[in-house]
Amino acid sequence: MSIEFFTRLPLHGETQYLPGDPRNRGDWNRGEHSTGAVSNFRVGDHFTYIDYLGQIARAAEINGFGGALMVNAPSGEEPWTVCSLLARETRTLKFVTAFQPYHYTPWVAVQQAATYQRASGNRLVWNIINGGSDAIQRQVGDFSGHDERYERAIEFLDVVKGYWHNENFHYEGKYYRAEGGGLRGPLKKAELPLICTAGSSIPAREFAAKHADYYLMRAEHPDEVRALISDVRERALKYGRTDIRFGMSIDVITRETEEAARAEAKRFFDEGIAKGAVKAVAAHAGLRTARKLSYEQGYAQKNETQGFEEFFIYPNVWAGFGYIGIPPGCALVGSYENVVARIREYNAAGIDLFFLAGYPHLEEAYRLGEHILPHFRSERAELARSQDSLPELRAVNGPAGA
Ligand SMILES: Cc1cc2nc3c(=O)[nH]c(=O)nc-3n(C[C@H](O)[C@H](O)[C@H](O)COP(=O)(O)O)c2cc1C
Q1: What is the pLDDT of residue 279?
Q2: Helix (H) or strand (E) holding 233
Q3: Residue whose CA is at the smallest distance from ligand 1 atom 19
Q4: What is the average per-residue pLDDT within 87-103?
Q5: Under a CB-based contact definition with an 8 Å cutoff, are residues 198 and 226 in contact?
Q6: 4-251+336-392 under CATH 3.20.20.30, yes or no
Q7: Contact, 80 vs 99, CB < 8 A?
Q8: What pLDDT sits at residue 35?
Q9: Which of 61, 67, 130, 397 could form a disulfide with 6 if both were Cys (CB 3.0 to 4.6 A apart)?
Q10: Does residue 393 have a pLDDT over 50?
Q11: What residues pair up with 179 in beta bridges, in sequence order?
């Protein structure tokens, strides 16, 4: 089985969710002093937070990461804009931008993506986000219900793929219509962005089953990862699809020895606890999923004074980050050797694409590049487009095959 490594960029601050850690970069902090930066971080300064993100992106590229995930939160930097700004500062790094269809029309998305692809050498990947929480959706102006958002997104991608692959595309759906239109001229040379998506609700899985090249998940116990993979694979089969692939986002705290790695994780944990960043934060932080993962359900019973060790849900898989409110929630904690072994285990469970990151992202990109990624050199493979998720001709006439 092939394997590929991407990282994740901190679009809402280096240690924004890590109270007590002084290593902030830029102006994303809670009023404490930033360390190491020369700027006042005012609009118009010569050095901005985006410059720091640029440093991480370049470090990731230099250290052999294939791409970077840009997560969207209403309070964070806007991911597709960051991708655009960083594309020209990098050469090969792919950018997986959170992409929320409800903020766009299919045509605007197609035109923007085609231009981006031409400028960047086809390095854009869309992570289609449909939003787990109705409350957060309403804050940003989307008043449709959870399941309806997925129904609409299925049509959205039907239309996007239709426009992309036809010069004269017609569509009559519940949410979208098109009468002619489609990529023409030089824009036609661009490749459709690869499609990732996440979400563990049934509509999210169905959406992935139909449209995604990669279904992304947060780390859980390997048994739960296997179960989710097998469910989504089965759903994809209904659409005649056999080649959907899987990705996982997980933080990494790794050192030469098991003890050193645990000491670093414990430092984060203790600082988080000391600052009171528990439970309430954990319940609301992160990726706003409708489904609580099983380790999150156990948080209510946990007593932080007992501690750190209880949060290992599997050897080297530590859910303490989620407890103190640091997304995505789980981290691989251990020696270089053991972290490599766990990655291999998740790979054997069906994960092709890993999003690995640590704190601070810049230094840890080097550590991962020097101590973890080289073990996988001969198995690395670029992201693959699913051959059976391309539009069928019936999409030209509408969703029902009218
Ligand atoms: C790797 C990964 C990245 C994600 N990125 C985002 C993001 O950028 N913005 C967001 O609102 N949700 C993000 N999510 C959350 C999911 O897209 C999804 O909205 C959430 O899990 C709720 O979906 P559900 O209610 O259908 O299960 C991400 C999830 C994963 C696993």
Answers
A1: 57
A2: helix 222-238
A3: 131
A4: 96
A5: no
A6: yes
A7: yes
A8: 61
A9: 67
A10: no
A11: 170
Query: Is the shortest distance between the CB of 12 and ligand 1 below 6 Å?
Result: no
Would the CA dihedral through 107, 112, 117, 119 be positive or negative? positive
Regarding pTM above 0.90, the answer is yes
The rounded Å distance from CA 229 to ligand 1 centre is 16
pLDDT at site 42: 76
DSSP readout, 266-290?
HHHHHHHHHTT-STHHHHHSSS--S
Among 196, 287, 330, residue to substitute to test ligand 1 (most atoms within 8 Å of Cβ): 287
Q: Whose CA is nearest to atom 12 of ligand 1?
A: 287
| C-beta of 204 in contact with ligand 1 (< 6 A) | yes
For 248, phi and psi rounded to 5 degrees? -140, 135
State the distance from the centre of ligand 1 to the C-alpha of 358, rounded, in angstroms. Answer: 19
For 267-289, write each residue's pLDDT tens digit: 989 888 887 766 545 444 444 55
Write the pLDDT tens digit of every residue in 28-53: 776 666 665 666 777 777 788 899 99
Query: CA-to-CA distance for 55 and 62, rounded, in angstroms?
Result: 10
Structure confidence by residue, pLDDT tens digits, 190-222: 999 999 999 999 999 999 999 999 999 999 999
Residue nearest to atom 23 of ligand 1 (CA): 199
CB under 8 Å to 278, separation ≥6 — which residues? 272, 304, 323, 324, 325
